[in-house]
Design goal:
two-stranded antiparallel ribbon, Formate dehydrogenase/DMSO reductase fold, single chain, about 325 residues, two-stranded antiparallel sheet
Length: about 325
């Protein structure tokens, strides 16, 4: 009888949930980051309408990822959360501000600028906090026994600030290319310019983070530069270069879909790079996924629930994007 590695299966499901959150919620966070750079209220209405039908569904994957980590890998959760309390709280507050702005921005004219600011601040804070948390995790979390062994401010380092800024640029790129795909007229033309700037900044950030990361740990250095492993990981930077070419070629030719797909590809490839560096660790380089896993009986029980729930989420997500397909009408009126 074949033995199922339940911890590995759950690690794959959570990795998929995190990636789905990043690429789906990333573009609507990016729209919020770009919000103040659109000069006219009509254009800002178009921007918000482009993500209004799907933004809350996109955040479902964050709930699944965070809740799954708590339930399936409780040891990793118990170590990571105390180390990242500050950026996680900032992330949640940013998402709250953004969510409230979605609802209240349309209810007032006199105070609309306040909710525009909340939408931008919440989106930027959430993106920056996610990048900070990622950088703190990559650089390593001190562990003693089975508990966090660091201080209150260990998450705040030059590397984590770099990853925070990098993710803000990356989400801005996703948001700009999403607007290219979903809007037209002046909004689309301005989005092309945003995408060119954000694309250049994102690629520069990817290069800086990629060069810095191997020097954070001997494990990372061996994963990327030892022989013959370098032969297996070399396609990742090559594919990043290809995605960058597709992105800028699409922007130059004023294509609508290819820049967005290329931006998504950049995020997927960066995620693959993280998996190459991390696996099999959940807390690099201290706790593996098997060390952190819950008992097999719990994993089986939760997997049965996930097998029912995840397909429903996927169908709902696909259906919502299908229903709201097409371009936003100029003037922020809706879809056509």
């Amino acid at each position: 009888m074949m033995h199922l590695d339940l911890a590995l299966i759950w690690a794959g499901l959570l990795a998929f949930a995190v990636l789905a959150y990043v690429v789906l919620d990333g573009f609507d966070l990016g729209v919020g980051i770009l919000f103040p750079f659109m000069p006219e209220e009509m254009q800002r209405d178009e921007m918000m309408n482009s993500v209004a039908p799907v933004w809350d569904g996109n955040e479902t994957w964050l709930v699944l990822g965070g809740g799954g980590l708590f339930a399936v890998f409780p040891l990793a959760y118990a170590i990571i959360m105390p180390a990242l309390y500050a950026p996680v709280i900032a992330l949640l507050l940013g998402l709250v501000f953004r969510g409230v702005a979605f609802e209240f921005r349309w209810k007032t004219q006199r105070g609309k600028f306040l909710w525009d600011g909340a939408f931008t601040a919440g989106s930027t804070m959430a993106a920056f906090a996610q990048g900070i948390a990622l950088g703190a995790l990559v650089q390593g979390i001190p562990v003693a026994g089975r508990a966090y062994d660091g201080g209150w401010w260990d998450w705040l380092t030059p590397f984590s600030v770099l990853t925070g800024v990098s993710l803000v640029f990356g989400y801005a790129l996703l948001g700009a290319t999403w607007l290219i795909y979903k809007t037209q007229g002046h909004t689309q033309q301005r989005a092309y310019r945003f995408a060119a700037v954000a694309g250049g900044a994102t690629l520069a950030a990817i290069g800086l983070v990629s060069l810095w990361t191997p020097f954070l740990s001997d494990v990372f250095m061996q994963r990327w530069f030892s022989w013959p492993r370098i032969l297996f990981v070399a396609p990742v930077p090559a594919l990043v270069a290809l995605a960058a070419y597709v992105l800028f070629n699409g922007l130059r030719r004023r294509q609508e879909l290819s820049p967005f797909l290329a931006s998504l590809a950049l995020f997927v490839l960066c995620f693959v790079g993280l998996l190459i560096s991390f696996f099999p660790y959940l807390v690099p380089t201290s706790v593996t996924l098997w060390d952190a896993a819950a008992p097999p009986s719990s994993l089986k029980f939760l997997l049965a629930g996930a097998a029912f729930l995840i397909p429903i989420i996927l169908v709902y997500t696909a259906y919502s994007y299908w229903v709201f397909r097409g371009k936003i009408e100029p003037g922020g009126g809706g879809y056509h």
